[in-house]
Amino acid sequence: MKKMLFLCLALSVSFLVSAQSTDFSGKWKLNSPKSKLSAEFSMAPKTLVIAQKGNDLSIERHSTFQERELTFSDKFTLDGKECLNKGWMNSEKRSTAVVTGDKKTVKITTVIAMGNNGSMTVTETYSMDGKSLVVEAIAASSFGDRTETMVYDKE
User: What angle do CA 151, 107, 51 make, to 5 degrees?
Assistant: First the structure.
């Protein structure tokens, strides 16, 4: 009986460990040579600071634009519920974030209103490639589509 109880407990713990999603927490620095960035204008933040705890995910993006340092902070829940965050020039971003079925990828879809120009939809997929964080971003709007693959190394 004790062996059966131990076996059930071991299987339960094994299942819980395998069911946990990848934790992307940490400070990440862009590795430009490994990334596939747009030649004209890149959306790639130079640094990401990610905090992930349970169902909550926060991403702080540090960028440079016209020699100015910019920081954007977003908070998400990983259950697919809509989250509102402040965007560029006080715009509003509506996002959903979900952990994929394999528990190794987080997909964030964000819609940003662009006034008379409609909206932009940005889909970011976060995954790990060895010790590197890979963010695949696709932006679609009336101005066209843009795709980038950003590779980050943990600091």
Answer: 70
